[in-house]
Amino acid sequence: MRCNAVSYRHRRVAEDILKMEKAGKVTARAFTYAELSEATGGFRPESLLGEGGFGPVYRGRLGSSSGPEVAVKQLDRNGMQGTREFLVEALMLSLLKHSNLVTLLGFCTDADHRMLIYEYMPLGSLEDHLLDLPPGRAPLDWATRMRVAQGAARGLEYLHDTARPPVIYRDFKASNILLDTGFRARLSDFGLAKVGPVGDKSHVSTRVMGTYGYCAPEYALTGKLTTMSDVYSFGVVFLEIITGSRAIDTTRPPEKHNLVLWAAPRFKDKRRFAEMADPLLKGAYPTKGLYQALAIAAMCLQEDATMRPAISDVVTALDYLTVAGGGAAANEPPAPNPNQQQQQTDIIGHAGEQA
């Protein structure tokens, strides 16, 4: 009986995606299992890029040897995420298009196979370049860190302010921020994303999901989800970017197991700001830029969700910070106008008042 139920669910997933494709809502292509097996060399171990809650991800090349490189995410039917998350991610990324989101090229629903096909991100994830670096590996410089944070914030801004209805990402963390050849941030893994509140609703009530250490306190306690939940998670990752430390790391001394709790008293004492800079930077960062970055992180990490800035204000502050600190990429917009600078100053000043 259970096998019949599972088969029925599998058919429904395929049918739901195909209905959206026929309606012109899905621009991604349907791939066969045979095509993807050929692209990845039979899913050989050498093609494995990594593994997450969804399942293993393989590197492949479509068509001939000159075809585009892709990343093939294969659903692990015994994994932490399942058919629902597969459908959510397929539909979300088919409908959402932005330069700071990964591009979904296609999907596979052959028989009981469930796969998603993305453009390949050659530099891997932010986590690969920031956390637990092997000895001798050069750390990301300050300007690159700020550009990555800027791009990731712009991705969230698109989800919160441009997508209709708005989307709450719900799983913002370093391993879900992929990097293209120019270190441009691309948000990935939308399996836990939720459609945000619309009309006069202030929140979405849902089962608490996400990664420990990144969830906003009010969401973890009540299950009430808002865009401010994503802003808190951004603050955690931004603090990781500044410090080079994981949000939760039990291998560190007890007082630093939880990065946010460790940082809290330091946010209130300007004399201790330098303690929060990644030691691998060896002081190679603008002092004013560090202070401003910490102020942004502190605002995003406010316990009271109503005191956190909107992600659009965070983007404005980071736009100013990257330009002022020499971190703007060649294809990024010019320096903000005076009104944008005032918004950035307001965030910095407000953070100082809260400290």
UniProtKB/TrEMBL annotation:
Catalytic activity: L-seryl-[protein] + ATP = O-phospho-L-seryl-[protein] + ADP + H(+); L-threonyl-[protein] + ATP = O-phospho-L-threonyl-[protein] + ADP + H(+)
Cellular compartments annotated: Cell membrane
Family, per entry: Belongs to the protein kinase superfamily. Ser/Thr protein kinase family.
Domain Protein kinase stretches: 43-321
Molecular function terms from GO: ATP binding; protein kinase activity; protein serine/threonine kinase activity
Membrane topology term: Lipid-anchor
Pfam families in alphabetical order: PK_Tyr_Ser-Thr (PF07714)
PANTHER family: OS07G0668900 PROTEIN (PTHR47985), OS09G0572600 PROTEIN (PTHR47985:SF85)
InterPro entries, alphabetized: Kinase-like_dom_sf (IPR011009), Prot_kinase_dom (IPR000719), Ser-Thr/Tyr_kinase_cat_dom (IPR001245), Ser/Thr_kinase_AS (IPR008271)
Top-rank EC class of the record's enzyme: transferase
Region described as Disordered: 328-355
Name of the protein in its database record: non-specific serine/threonine protein kinase
Main location: membrane
Gene Ontology cellular component annotations, sorted alphabetically: plasma membrane
Gene3D superfamilies named in the record: Phosphorylase Kinase, domain 1, Transferase(Phosphotransferase) domain 1
EC number(s) stated in the UniProt entry for this protein: 2.7.11.1
Keywords: ATP-binding, Cell membrane, Kinase, Lipoprotein, Membrane, Nucleotide-binding, Serine/threonine-protein kinase, Transferase
